[in-house]
Amino acid sequence: xxxxxxHLAEAQQQITGYIYPxxxxxxxxxxxxxxxxxxGLVAGAFILASLERVFNVKEVQPTYRxxxxxxxxxxLVAPLPLLAHLGHPERAFEIFLTPHLQSAMAMFGFVYxxxxxxxxxxxxxFDYRRDIVVWSRTYRGWRRVLxxxxxxxxxxxxxxxxKFDERAGRFITIVGIPSAFLLHGYVGFIFGSVKANxxxxxxxxxxxxxxxxxxxxxxxxxxxxxxxxxxxxxxxxMPCLDKLGQFLFYALILDVSLELLDFVHRLxxxxxxxxxxxxxxxxxxxxxxxxxxALMGTVVPLVVLAVVRALKPRELVRKVAYFxxxxxILVAIFFMRWNVVLGGQLFxxxxxxxxxxKIGLAGAEGAVTAGILTLLPxxxxxxxxxxxxxxxxxxxxxxxGQQTHSS
Amino acid sequence: MKDELxxxxxxxxxxxxxxxxxxxxxxxxxxxLGTIFASEEPGGSEGEGHWYGMGIDLxxxxxxxxxxxxxxxxxxxxxxxxxxxxWVERYVVTVDREVSVDSPNGGIDGFPPPDIEEQHILRxxxxxxxxxxxxxxxxxxxxxxxxxxxTRDGVVLVDEKxxxxxxxxxxxxxxxxxxxxxxxxVADKCTFCxxxxxxxLRPACVEVCPNSAxxxxxIRNANTPLWRFVRTNELQVLKPHLRxxxxxxxxxxxxxxx
Lengths: 407, 258
Known about the structure:
The complex is a heterodimer of chains A (407) and B (258). Chain A is mainly α and 407 residues long. Chain A is 70% helix and 1% strand. In chain B, 26% of the residues lie in helices and 19% in strands. Chains A and B meet through helix 1 of A and strand 3, helix 3, helix 4 and strand 7 of B.
């Protein structure tokens, strides 16, 4: 508590204008920025996976299983930032047990449980079932036990049962697409439906969140695919990478258009909050909103991806371009969440003043926790990839490499 | 021919009016436009039990801050100047129509002389703030577990044994009336001193106000001071465009106040 008070005393010195006295403490900090960032990556990675499965975009096949595992790894971590932030984490389960049905946040439990169990786990299971059965027969020791359990006793590898797996997987993906939209659109709704806050309150918020999620998911899988290929010393499948770059470009155009629409709409309506919001963007949010999100994370990637598509430079240049834009985009989407979550709290609801956000290092909501929560999905992904290799190889059964175009 | 046409038109017009009149009457009976009074009562028990509200007579407030002090004392609100169930704001409007607002320590220690020279001040006034006990409370709507709720007598409370501390209610409150108690780690706010009013006492802030600027009472009971305040003043509520239907009513409220 003493640290909090010291923190608040420091913040109080940096207030400009007038803010309500209770507004000096900024309530949703870094870990709440992480929450929409992580769920966005889940939704985006899943939608990328569905491109292959439902929309038959065969080029991105090498990333199909990787996208699914990435979505799963990040989804497992998604509730942790929320938990870290609660005043009483031990009561968190009340959201599941006694949800207040009028509350958007109360839906979290249902949306999360639906997405984790019905969509992701089932899809991964149907997709891997044949491999799991084979591994349970070929491996010895604890792996054999593990795969036997994972097969859930369904050990048939007959033509008919594999066909069923395929059909079920496809069906779940079809159900999964609106579910992914729901998962992240819902996160946008949590902010967009707060009428007290003019920075958040926008009907476009869920849809802006959704498209930025798709952009960030594609960028993440692209990066993971490139890095994992280098680590495994496997050639990168360039048609796949080009296709990912193409989808990244299209999704980014849609995302930017929506954000521009939101921006122009606010500017044109120029409601009573416009002055304080403009002041905030020009001062407190200038670096994160204008420099990082708009210029480095949007304009630069758009130009680079457009040039790559128009000029088709040689392979190495394309790889560098995709890798660079992937990183820029991920950073920009992180700061998009930052600008939404923190921006909504940097100005007073009296519309008369601005406050500051200071990142604490320690504590459940500090930078160290946030760092751990960012790294954790990658650790989980490494474990998942070890247990369920998404590519062909010594341990892999599925001939993923067959369909790749690298030569 | 011309005359005939004109008379038909007039008759049609009158007929049309006759048809519209009941429809308009019906429509207006369903809409409660033009009133600031909260339209929905909790519990659906119209005419039964209490229904509390507060009037703030801005012309009487002298900015002494005793209300803020008494509130902290009565309700064990942390003494640090970042947690308030009620506070007093001072507005200073200059001749150039510039507005400056402050509320040092919620007004508890009084207000220092304003930085603006006296001849540049057009007018100055104090505005006590507190939870508006909205009849359509956004904080209640967003609470994921129902820890924030509305009592049958129209007071919004927080169940401290149930609140998970997610702080969505703090974000949803348009008036900055909520804070997270640093000790209990749950959301907290003005309760109209529920522990007092249910025993027939007045809220602490009302009790200590030396100038009777805060008027507590029941909205539909003609025997309370609030009724008299409502009858004899032109009233406003804060941020009416958000349709939260506050039950804290101000008289002589300047449009600068948000």
